[in-house]
Amino acid sequence: MDLFVQQLVNGLTLGSIYCLVALGLTLIYGIMEVPNFAHGHLYMIGAYVTLFSMTLYGLNYWLSSILAGIVLGIVGVLMERIVFHPLRHAPSSNKFIAAIGAMMFLEALARVLWGSDFRSMPAVYDQVVLIGGIRVTEQRIIVIVSAILLMLALNLFLKKTIIGSSIEATAQNREGAGQVGIDVNSVAMITFGIASFLAAVAAALAGPIFLVFPSMGALIIMKAFVIIVVGGMGSIPGAILGGYILGVTESMGATYVSTDYKDIVAFLVLILILAVKPTGLFAEGKR
Amino acid sequence: MVKKNVILKAGCFVLLIIALAVPYISPSPYFIQVISMSFIFAIAVYGLNLIEGYMGQLSLVQAGFFGIGAYMSGLLTLKLKMSFWLALPITSLATTFLALLIGLISFRTRGHYFVILTLCIGVVINLVIEKWEGLTGGVGGVIGIPKPSPLGPLSFDTIDKQYYLILAFLLLTIYVMYRIINSLVGRTFISIRNSEELAATLGINVMYNKLLAFGVSAFFTGMAGALYAAFIRFIGPDISSPILTFEFLLYLLVGGQATIAGPLVGTLLISGLTESLQFLKEYRLILFGALLVLIVKFFPWGIVGFVQLLTARNCKILTGKEGVSS
């Protein structure tokens, strides 16, 4: 039983990270209908920015995380401008290919700049806390709580602010949003900024638990895709639910089935779901 | 029109002569090796060209087929001592069969879902090859795969002879692709690419045709994998990684998708360039990434498509290529 609860906590930690990454991906998909393949690599760069601001510039963990979020937010906006904006009228496979190009570029850049070594981020909050007989590191609690706070903040932002409403309106109907005077271009930029911010913060949160390396984004982006396909592309509740489900499933699978094959679980789930329901679980209408 | 055909035929003939003469004019065995490798990859890129270029289905499982082809043929010839000439068709057919199974699931989805699903299947294949140590040797891979066994009086023990073997397979691939594209089947593929709904309205069985294209594509990709295993003689899980699929995609886009010459031109140019400019090795993916973005933006038809567009404009006729791709 203890092992089960322990794995549940681990799963929720992992799920929190997946949620934050998948949320950004689903936001971008909702606005631009771009499957942004490079999103996971923004996550990776976010991890490096946090790492270096801590080790090279001696900033504390929280400042580094926020700095990474802001830096990557800017990178995200630039990416929208340089890569996706010019292709907004192109066929969808061209956008996909451009996203793959951006992904290759970022990973190779990270390899050249920082080498292919696995690095570990200095763990500031690695004390073990006992909660009802379960041993949890502080960092895991931070991850779970911060993710919830961030998601609440995102929800408030989308529902209560004008910019947030414009984002939702654009996601619902791009032409319609343009007609009522929403600047769809800036909405796209803001969305990319927010999504990249979330990815970088997720990386900063995950950094002390997992390792930092140039291809760390490749696996997480595919899992994020699995999540948003399962949760319905463009759906925010779907991304959150899917993120937690995947995190817990993987954690349980690693404990009770096999550690070697834990990464395969996510993809098998996706293949199964799409085999039965080709439009995803919670798809709203046909694309 | 007739004059243009003659020029084209003469051009092809000259290229063939050059290809046949490569072992005699090549400065070093290394050069032949680079060209041979490009030819092997080109065969796989022709497979991608059929499904993405002509059919408009961006399948990202291609390196998975390549890896399965290489591992299956490698293991059959190494562990079961099977003749290469038996292992090759078995491997190609097995890959085709697998593709049909994958196709039955994945062609139920469309657009982005298809791309993501095929990518995930590619990742699963890659992970299984990497983790199944008992069969595939895991990260260490398979070492000491035998060279292609002699075929009657023909032996393939030197690099020159292997080069001719690979060239023969490449020519076969190009010929089959050419025949497919210029047949009713090829037209059907293109019509599905241009509009699935319209094609279905005309009575075309979309699912059947997609499966057909996918199967043929996997056949050649698996065959390329088998050739790779016999030529390089050691294989690792890298060759089934989605990164290789992305490289195939780059070769295809640079050369020009939905053209017959595109895959060969793109592969020779890019893989030849990176192999010969070793100092670029580290930076090549940075360049390639940027190149992909620039190509889809400015030259969505690649080099061959661009040339075709120019000549079409000059001659005021449209050559083989129709419409905007995918």
Considering the chains and any ligands shown, give keywords for the structure.
heterodimer, A: mainly alpha, 11 helices, B: about 325 residues, mainly alpha, ABC transporter involved in vitamin B12 uptake, BtuC, two-stranded antiparallel ribbon, about 75% helix, globular
Strand elements of chain A, count: 2
Most extensive contact: A-B, 47 and 43 residues
Radius of gyration of chain B: 19 Å
Q: Spans of chain B of 5+ residues with little confidence (pLDDT < 50)?
A: 316-326
Strand content of chain B: under 5%
Integer-rounded radius of gyration of chain A: 19 Å
Query: Helical proportion of chain B?
Result: over 70%
Please identify the structural class of chain B as seen in this structure: mainly alpha
What would you note in describing this structure?
The complex is a heterodimer of chains A (287) and B (326). Chain A is mainly α and 287 residues long. Chain A has one domain (16-221). Helices cover 73% and strands 3% of the residues of chain A. Chain A has eleven helices and two strands, in the order ααααββααααααα. Chain A has helices at 2-32, 39-55, 61-84, 92-114, 138-160, 162-172, 174-179, 184-206, 216-231, 236-256, 262-276; strands at residues 128-131, 134-137. Chain A has a two-stranded antiparallel sheet. Chain A is globular, with a radius of gyration of 19 Å. The mean pLDDT of chain A is 84. Chain B has 14 helices and two strands, in the order ααααααβααααβαααα. Chain B has a single domain, classed as Orthogonal Bundle (ABC transporter involved in vitamin B12 uptake, BtuC), CATH 1.10.3470. In chain B, helix 3 runs parallel beside helix 5 and helix 3 (62-79) packs across helix 10. The longest helix of chain B has 27 residues, at 206-232. In chain B, strands 1-2 form a two-stranded antiparallel ribbon. Chain B is mainly α and 326 residues long. Helices cover 74% and strands 1% of the residues of chain B. Chain B is globular and about 50 Å long. Mean pLDDT of chain B is 85; it is low at 316-326. The chains are: A mainly alpha (287), B mainly alpha (326). At the A-B interface, helix 4, helix 9 and helix 11 of A face helix 5, helix 11 and helix 13 of B.
